[in-house]
Amino acid sequence: MAFPRLAAALPPLLLALTLSSPPATAQKIGTTIPEVHPKLETQICTTAGGCVTQQTKLVTDSLSRPFHDVNNMAVPCATMPLNATLCPDAATCAQNCVLEGVEYSSLGVMTKNSALTLRQYLFDGSAFSSVSPRLYLLAEDDMNYEPLKLLNQELSFDVDVSQLGCGMNGALYLSEMDMSGSRSELNPAGAQYGTGYCDAQCFTTPPFINGLANLNNSGSCCNEMDIWEANSQATVYTPHTCSGVGSFLCAGDECNKTVGVCDKDGCGINSFGLGAKEFYGPGLTIDTTRPFTVVTQFLTSDNTSTGDLVEIRRLYVQNGKIIPNTAETTNTAVQNLAGGFEGTITQDYCAARNAKDFTRLGGLKGMGGSLARGMVLIFSIWNSPGDFMSWLDGGNNGPCNATAGDPAQIVATQPDVSVTFSNIKWGDIGSTFKAEGPAGSAVASETVEKGVNNALAAQSGAGSERAMMAGSLTMSVVVGLAVLLGAFLS
């Protein structure tokens, strides 16, 4: 979000303040508004030792905070086009600009223990304004981003999307950002102030990239794993691959979709879009009027953290039942996959979906490389005046009509939109959630295995051949899945 909107929300007295400081060669860190990172507890889990709580924190993006002329806080640096007087080159711009802290409640951010709530709009007493926060997970050192290395691991969290209607997107995703926030001599602020953002869209519009002036209309690119893009009506999870390792810049046609260095469309699963229209939504199998748990597993060719990524699997937990992502589909190419479709992302699935750029730029193996190296966890809430988020929940992708996602309609009819994420955990397959029987007792792995085999065969409708395929799953994967156990024990 651009600075002018934030500046407009600052008290007049604060805007009137001017700052002076001695010359320096680096971008300055302001002292007028302190930076106090909201705390958000997360957990790292192992099958041997259980889950250990971390005192991690959150930081908002560098462009969602006051970023101003060193001598006048009312003059922003983060504008496009850049102020030619303040920013004729990167070094001079760093000397002339100050990056301040921010009051997180003014961004619609609230945390308590392991829960994070994000709001799209805030009311100032007379009108609602859009704040649309985007936050990154900081490590316990409060200096660098927390690296999530999820190859042959899983990530789970609870989510409440009941207050997100058509056109909204409460997102939780991973990007292969530099863990220091691309901290440098000219950018000493780094991750502490939310610098270094990148994703597979390679946007060329940010006035600053990696804390430095974007003088050449560059794009900031990196592999992106969209774990969760959703509202109460539809959801999708999507890997996006790029040609480079880590965060890198693109220029010109490299940043474009058709011949670009990143796969902007990705290879995703939207259950509604595949034909399963009664699976996810209010009162459906996954009932979005109530909170539920989302589990995403990154399975490898040899069940180790050094193998190739071969499958991204989604599970849900609600009302004590563990539910796999539905395998129901009306898509003929997906129906005809060799070995059948299990509601998971595989390279064969991506081929059936004609995800050519995804495959060209590395496919699942490339995505696995990012997961092995480490990615940054990101939270956001947003809507889109350009397309009304129809790619997520409209047309063939969801039940929303053509205008339901118009932000003007959202703020007029349901301005109190929000999403809450909580109980964020990652670690060994099967370690971040439990399968329990009706009395709360731990489930034996043999029972889980039987449930997996029978459930997958029944869900696919492929009969004994599919059941034999499911039976070939290794025990480590089976225990991690714990699929549909509640249905067999209730």
Describe how the helices and strands are arranged.
Layout: H1 3-9, H2 12-15, E1 28-29, E2 42-46, E3 50-54, E4 57-60, E5 67-69, E6 72-76, H3 90-96, E7 97-99, E8 109-112, E9 115-119, E10 121-123, E11 128-130, E12 134-138, E13 153-160, E14 168-175, E15 208-209, E16 212-213, E17 219-221, E18 224-230, E19 235-240, E20 248-250, E21 280-281, E22 286-287, E23 292-300, E24 309-318, E25 321-324, H4 332-335, H5 347-352, H6 356-360, H7 363-373, E26 376-383, H8 390-393, H9 407-413, E27 418-428, H10 445-460, H11 464-471, H12 475-481, H13 485-489
Parallel strand pairs: 1-7, 2-27, 21-22
Antiparallel strand pairs: 2-3, 4-12, 5-6, 5-7, 8-9, 9-27, 10-11, 12-26, 13-23, 13-27, 14-18, 14-26, 15-16, 17-20, 18-19, 23-24, 24-25
Helix pairs in contact: 10-11, 10-12
Features:
cellulase activity; six-stranded antiparallel sheet; nine-stranded mixed sheet; 1,4-Beta-D-Glucan Cellobiohydrolase I, Chain A; 27% strand; alpha+beta; polysaccharide degradation; Glyco_hydro_7
Polypeptide structure, described:
Belongs to the glycosyl hydrolase 7 (cellulase C) family. This is Glucanase. InterPro entries: ConA-like_dom_sf, Glyco_hydro_7, Glyco_hydro_7_sf. Its EC number is 3.2.1.-. By secondary structure, this protein is of the alpha+beta class. It has a domain at 114-433: Glycoside hydrolase, family 7, domain (1,4-Beta-D-Glucan Cellobiohydrolase I, Chain A). It has helices spanning 3-9, 12-15, 90-96, 332-335, 347-352, 356-360, 363-373, 390-393, 407-413, 445-460, 464-471, 475-481, 485-489, and strands spanning 28-29, 42-46, 50-54, 57-60, 67-69, 72-76, 97-99, 109-112, 115-119, 121-123, 128-130, 134-138, 153-160, 168-175, 208-209, 212-213, 219-221, 224-230, 235-240, 248-250, 280-281, 286-287, 292-300, 309-318, 321-324, 376-383, 418-428. Strands 2, 3, 8, 9, 13, 23, 24, 25 and 27 form a nine-stranded mixed β-sheet that branches. Strands 4-12-26-14-18-19 form a six-stranded antiparallel β-sheet. Strands 1-7-5-6 form a four-stranded mixed β-sheet. A hairpin with an 8-residue loop joins strand 23 and strand 24. The protein is globular, with a radius of gyration of 23 Å.
